[in-house]
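Re: that chain you flagged

S.,

Sorry for the slow reply, it's been a week of failed gels. I finally had a moment to sit down with the sequence you sent. For the record, here it is as I used it:
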Amino acid sequence: MRKVITYGTFDLLHQGHINLLKRAKASGDYLIVGVTSANYDRYRGKLNVRQSVSERMDAVRKLPFVDEVIVEEYEGQKIDDIIRLHVDAFVIGSDWVGRFDYLKDYCEVIYLERTRGISSTQLRNAKHPIIRMGVVGTGRIANRFLQESKFVSGITVEGVFNIHEDSAKRFAEKHELAFYEADYDRFLDKINAVYIASPHDTHFAYAKHALLSGKNVLCEKPMAFSGDEVDELFSIAEAQGLILMEAIKTAYCPGFQRLISCAKSGKIGDIVGVDAAFTKLVPMSSRELRDDPYSGSVTELITYPLLAIFRLLGTDYEDLHFTSYYRKGHVADLYTRLILDYPGAAALAVTGLGVKSEGELIISGTRGYVYVPAPWWKTEYFELRYEDPSENEKNFYKFAGDGLRYELVEFISQILSGKMPAESQTISRAIADVIAVFRAGKRTRVLLRPDRERPSVSGT
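Prediction finished late last night. Pasting the structure tokens below so you have them in one place:
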């Protein structure tokens, strides 16, 4: 008898799961299914699992072609199970190709092409609906989103849109999606939620069209380039009974949320200063530094420092001004320092592309301060530090994968609850307003070497 084993969470069991299990059974005579425990799901970064392990095991056990169900509880258990149960073949979906090649030392490893496209009827569940998502864009962040979505229960990513059909087709084939489209309306007709990861200058138009078409929208930063545009999008979403969310992964990761709570709890006294930096080295020929008015370090990176500043000090600052550094003859800033003045407090935001500095976050208080080392926007560790070092506190939190799974879970939660937090709307508008001031060239001082030309800005 040829024994076959496979593993998964199998939350909200649907036709895609069933198809995979049927084909796994066809690879042998006896099918063993390992269902992950809640603790193991948390360990491996699987989020938003809605059913208990017993509910998930019962659903799998009822399938007539499943012979045995076990619980997967720890890393490395697959090897132990294969040896203990005398397994001949390990079967898993093709979206994990290569990930389990190490098991070839113990049994045959088979990667099965996953089911492309699950009908809305198959996904309809009054208590636990599953969201059909589509992706706008085929760049780096879109590719990361597809990988991260594997770790979030309650969604299925079905298709991709790109005005360049060849790019859309390659992306769909790579990620085994059900469809690709170069026509935005046809794309929207096939999904009920959209993730927008296209170039910055297209975010507003794509988001507005999707909302007016009745789709929930998760939009990469910056959502828009003015506060008025942000308000317009949220007004449409509210009128349509839809969810609109800016995809700022840091805002929803456990470590950052705990960091904000600690800082605002009074443990470091009154907050009088926030210094936040985000810089990275990229080639001068990179997308982020292309020669157009939507590029540069502020447009690309300032959302993260401003998120921390606005969460800690609010959005009612009194004044702001920038100091920026440019290349000869180019409009993209390589390095910018933004100072925000508040009543009784001040904040500094630093961004850089092709210019590197320490990417730390420091929150200064009247009793102590919070120190978060780089990369603080992937918060895994922070310290509360005091005058007496014996009182210092160290905090550790897991940051899973690229972090996009955290924003995706929040997006699903908002869809299911039908509520958009007011604070996130306020912060999205405030971020867009700051970017608008910068792009207008107001309150900006430009730094250039003597042999470099000054870029065209006004009101400096």
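What I noticed first: The two ends are 79 Å apart (CA to CA).

Talk soon,
D.
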